[in-house]
Batch of 4 targets.
Target 1
Amino acid sequence: MVLCLRSCSHGLFSTSRRCFSSVRSHQEDKRWPGWQIIIGIEVHAQIKSRRKLFSVPLTGNLPNTCVSPFDAAFPGTLPRLNVQCVALATRVALALNSNIQSRSTFDRKHYFYPDLPAGYQITQHYSPFAIGGRLVLPTEAAVPVRIKQIQLEQDTAKSIFDPRRRETLIDLNRAGMGLMEIVSEPDMRSPEEAALYVRSLQSLLRAVGASDGNMEQGSLRCDVNVSVNRPGLPPGTRCEIKNLNSVKFMMSALSSEIRRHIDILDSSSSVPQETRGFSEQTFETFKLRSKEDAPDYRYMPDMNLGTLHITETQIQNIRETMPELPDITRSRLQKQYSLHPRDVEILLALDAEKDIPFDGETGGPSSAGAVRYFENICQDHGQGAKEKPRDPKVVLNWIIHELVGQLSARHETFTAQRVPSSWLAELIDMVQGNIITRTSGKSLLRHILHNPSEESPKQLAHKLDLIALRTEDQVSSAGTAPPAGDMDLTAICRASISQMPAEVVAYQAGNVNVLNKIVGHVMKTTRGRANALAVKTVLQAMLDGN
Ligand SMILES: Nc1ncnc2c1ncn2[C@@H]1O[C@H](COP(=O)(O)OP(=O)(O)OP(=O)(O)O)[C@@H](O)[C@H]1O
Ligand SMILES: [Mg+2]
Ligand SMILES: [Mg+2]
């Protein structure tokens, strides 16, 4: 059987393979002076498809409800490639500037473990579907990390140990789900660079819609390889630490492993090549097996699967639907909106929380993310084209401080929130135009979150009596009367002065600080509807007899 996305009539793809040197001048790290650290990472990312790599659609969340006879390795069942997994992995390969192979094949990797019903995993050992590429770390030095290859493979089932009954339970739901293994070259030089690599890869996977990339939920897992050598000498022996499920643990595992290698080398011994685990209790690595006990995987081509052909036209079609990649978004946001890099990072982190739809489908409004939300507000001049564009810093401030602040107080996420960008835009315009005060703006936002309704912020501001109080002069120059029953600010200031004779005397005797007390009184009376600066000006003018 030949698995063909479409029959291949072209030769090799023209995807450029950029060459660059992996040689970096050694920079001394104070933590381990006189040593160079080399790190390479294998990332396993679950592909966000509705179907497994070779079998059934994903249904049911209960254990063992999403299992086809093929996943359970029933005799006579055959694999059928899910082309959506290939398409999503192709997006990743394009984003990483990887060379997508026109022909690739699948192999069986044999080992015996209860979470692998067939006794082998289907992977791409001999001929992976993408080779080469790179990811540039977002540091000042823009460190490039070369990608060695990307291969498609099946996930295993999940084994869950029940300590009470001392037995292991198997959940086959994960068995056969599509994974990409993204293998880096050994180009990282510190745990921090390793962390940055994984985080950058996570946001790239999410940006192209290929994977949730969520380490806590297991949709992204890392094996890290590390070795230690004297600068200028050949690399040391690598040890591989398996199955790390958080960036924090990965950094601890690396630091502990580096220290262990240095201790061994300092005592004039040599580091044996090992596969190791990481204990979340001791924050140290421990030996799983040595090179000598490494399993013989007896790789062999999977004869039930033929060659995977990917044509240049198919790649081009996918290339045309590629979204903006995180690096470009980062620098564009900084330039286009003159935002501080720190604020851009906050916005990008918020954006990364968005839902990733299955199979690259266009998601609903909640999956649009924080960047789109921010840009909608900045770019949509709802008040008419002649109005000034909204100040991006003000917009960002309302999103990351006020909106997200209030949402987290309510234990809600930005992704699940229901305030349309046009509403926040309207609210910001009212505050910036002094129609309501900033304090009232915050109360209005709180009200909207507490009482979802169809009424717009403007309607609510009137209904809730939040329109800012104006001074006599502002009322007469605007030519519109204040809402019925509203006193103007001048009248309220006058009333406060008459209620605070002792303070007035003190002020007039030269104690100017007492003015703040009278301002406070007005602010309290107006319940945040007055602008403190305007109140101060009016009071000062009255008390100074101007
Ligand atoms: N001297 C070294 N120090 C640190 N990392 C290294 C060194 N040499 C190679 N590596 C890294 O080790 C990793 C090897 O991964 P690869 O998938 O090719 O093989 P593997 O780990 O032997 O196989 P498996 O996929 O079965 O675990 C790569 O990320 C590579 O960059
Ligand atoms: Mg590997
Ligand atoms: Mg490995």
Target 2
Amino acid sequence: MGLHISLRKRLPHFDLRLDLGCARGELTAIVGPSGAGKSTLIRLVAGLETPDWGRMELGARTFFDKAAGIDVPTRERQVGMVFQDYPLFSHLSLAKNVAFSCADQGKVNALLARFGIRHLAQRKPGTVSGGERQRAAMCLALARDPAILLLDEPFSALDALTRSDLRGELRQLTRQLGIPVLLVTHDLHEAAELGDAIFPMTDGRHDPQWLSDTLSGARRASQNLATRVCA
Ligand SMILES: Nc1ncnc2c1ncn2[C@@H]1O[C@H](COP(=O)(O)OP(=O)(O)OP(=O)(O)O)[C@@H](O)[C@H]1O
């Protein structure tokens, strides 16, 4: 009873044609080259763009059904979204930013604690690090009790240590929340570490061959590098 998507959308350079499922409590990592349509897929699921044809269902709920004329607006889809450099309100503290999507102060504090930024609750976004801002963005997305979590390169601007911490947190959260999570990432290590399933795509289509080619290219490059390491 997870997420099921079957959709088509005409884009300037190709048609997006995707069939994708993601079970509750699982994370599907969407990988592929630049311009493959990964962010467009996320925007379609969020309701920020409209497919030309298809259906999107989450359990018994239908978000979108072209044939039946159903197109549930974004605010009613219960999506939690985090993308790179998520915009927080600069004049509000981190706690007030999170409270914007949840009136329950106890829950806001628990989320801030979970993501290790409880001590920064009263600080404004401009006075904390990029990693701390992304943690606040995750709290904001989760405070809404989302039915699905959509993450578009949420960690890509962060240093390796912060990325690794946040990945660990996300892995635990996905299991605990029991909701489907779609994660767009350029980082195949991240996809391998977090993905219960990997969904490679190129030019708007599912393309497992791209992943095999990329992995064998990377193997060749690392062998090539190994032969040239100074003694
Ligand atoms: N606002 C737009 N106007 C016109 N074309 C767009 C727009 N946004 C995306 N596209 C085109 O749609 C296609 C898919 O773009 P999309 O951003 O979904 O790819 P992506 O896989 O997320 O790329 P990246 O990894 O670089 O973020 C690309 O060919 C892109 O040029």
Target 3
Amino acid sequence: MITSADILKALSTVEDPDLKRDLVTLNMIKDVKVEPKKVSFTVVLTTPACPLKEKIRQDCEDAVEKVTGPDVDIYILMTSSVTTLRDNAPLLPGVKNIIAIASGKGGVGKSTVTSNLAVALAQTGAKVGLIDADIYGPSIPVMFNCEHEQPMVKQVNGKNIIIPIEQYNVKLISIGFLAPPDSAVVWRGPMASSALKQFFSDADWGELDYLLIDLPPGTSDIHLTMVQTVPVTGAVIVTTPQKVALADANKGMAMFKQPQINVPILGVVENMAYFTPEELPDNKYYIFGKDGGKNLSEKHNVPFLGQIPLVQSIRESGDSGLPAAMKEGPTAEAFKDLAKTLARQIAIRNAQKPTLVTDVK
Ligand SMILES: Nc1ncnc2c1ncn2[C@@H]1O[C@H](COP(=O)(O)OP(=O)(O)OP(=O)(O)O)[C@@H](O)[C@H]1O
């Protein structure tokens, strides 16, 4: 007679190819049921759009069939729960992963990449939040077509709590909401830092799989405030391929490695990697140089997350407030692939620490 223990033993031979450990050790197998002529169980993947889903399912079926033989039906339910390392976070207890999006230079497309990553992650079924902390040019409200909106405030135990605006299934708060769009507010370091702290402590984020933070370009007080206020899962570096941008991206990466910051780098995104005319997508013109971001990631031995081409429609989508990832075609696909690769790197990162938590309540 086959038991649940036999099934778990069989599944402990199946490895998650990314996380390099077996599914039972990773706590990914739930609800094992053994009935006459039927075995069922659930596999809880670590990202909603796991590219290895089909392979893992097949490996599970093969492993279990070796124990049961061919006459037993095997039912496998594939679900997902984004992992976290934060089992004891006093601020933002419902937020599983905080991801900083940074660049060395301004204008390399950091906000464009952040907004598209946010909607592409949300499209996979993940719960996503976005804080626009770019004091020099808070462009997220325009990119999400909500620049004239104001987040509501509610009172909880006598405290004012900001309710993030929700657009395209992303909850967002921007430092731009604190000043009228046409005003020339000069954010002093302490003012900006206290605004960011408020976005963490006095906002109703609820449960999120990923909270993205669009940082100002370069290095600033904001970066320090962020790491001193919340545990950051990792940073994504956005760069364009030319030498002057790479030199600054290099500095940005060095900053995250400093002992007082110490945030792991999840990878590099190469934006404006090549120019492509919309009507001739196979024509690629490397106007800013080729593979600069890729080479940078190799130099620092961090993952390369992907290339985004320079395409007119990406700029138009940003200006019109409907991120390119929400449309169809190769440009949207590039952002969707980027989001999947990032989610995968976050899962890999989380699996490297022993205290993996699969659910936060
Ligand atoms: N891949 C791309 N193709 C076409 N246009 C792009 C692309 N990436 C960004 N842009 C455009 O370049 C401009 C600058 O982008 P964005 O505001 O995202 O940069 P940034 O790095 O966030 O700037 P900063 O942080 O200095 O405010 C925007 O008009 C945006 O639409």
Target 4
Amino acid sequence: MIQNLLRVEKFVDSPTEKMKVKRETQDKADGDLILKAHKPHISVRNLNVYLTKNHILKNVNLDIPDKAITCIIGPSGCGKTTLLKTFNRLLQNSLDVRIEGDVLVDGENIHGKGVEVENIRKKMGLLSQRPCPLPMSIFDNIAYGPRIHGIRRKKTLNIMVEKYLKEAGLWDEVKDRLKSPATSLSIGQQQRLCMARGLAVKPEIILGDEATSALDPISSKKIEELFVKLKDQYSIVLVTHTLRQARRIADYVIFMYLGEVIEAGPAAEFFSNPKEKLTKEYLDGYFS
Ligand SMILES: Nc1ncnc2c1ncn2[C@@H]1O[C@H](COP(=O)(O)OP(=O)(O)OP(=O)(O)O)[C@@H](O)[C@H]1O
């Protein structure tokens, strides 16, 4: 026993191990700070989802921090998209869909009686895998949401269109062709346009479902940079297949497997010191 202790002591004494222990302690401290600094924006409690009688999400419990980037990772078919869809009620109870448990946004159960789905959706912008601009001009794509909310003055709309195109990092590329059809833009530009269109209705939360997977590397990098720039103002939740992307931009990570949340935590700690064997195996590439 004493020999073992001495061995551990000696091991921790080595400079590399000391650095590792120091780094892990620092990661843990950073993680605690993230959790303290960012109160939960979305909380999921005992969530079970059945699609055509298949049990897809199994007793999911988690908190998504406010004003941070949360990445949901896990192998194909583990339920990432289904989970994301429950956040803005894209999944509704119906003959084929049964939802049990609570999804709380700002403390309100969004599946509760009397909750207007429009009010929930207004809080969230959704970026899907393939950009889907509306079949109208670049200008009208951005002005669409504000017009629906009653904004008609041309001057106000001009200001808004410029503001949100700038926020999405697209203004300089399109300012001279605002009347052109949105479909004339490249796919990467269309994705930034969709981001600007979403921002124009002033959401609190941005959801992304594989939002960069259809893009070339440069466009993908621009969208990633945009997420990082926007995270001070919005809570961002991203489903991603790309572990490298999660390592680059996540503040908080949720790892799912076969419909269950296996592990969730602050990114630095999650990647450097995963607790669960399955998480370690996934991070080491034993399965993908
Ligand atoms: N309408 C449906 N009826 C029955 N099963 C469904 C239905 N829609 C999805 N599923 C199943 O639910 C599971 C979770 O699907 P989901 O799309 O959420 O996974 P995912 O982790 O996002 O996968 P991927 O990474 O491949 O997009 C899968 O096994 C899928 O086949």
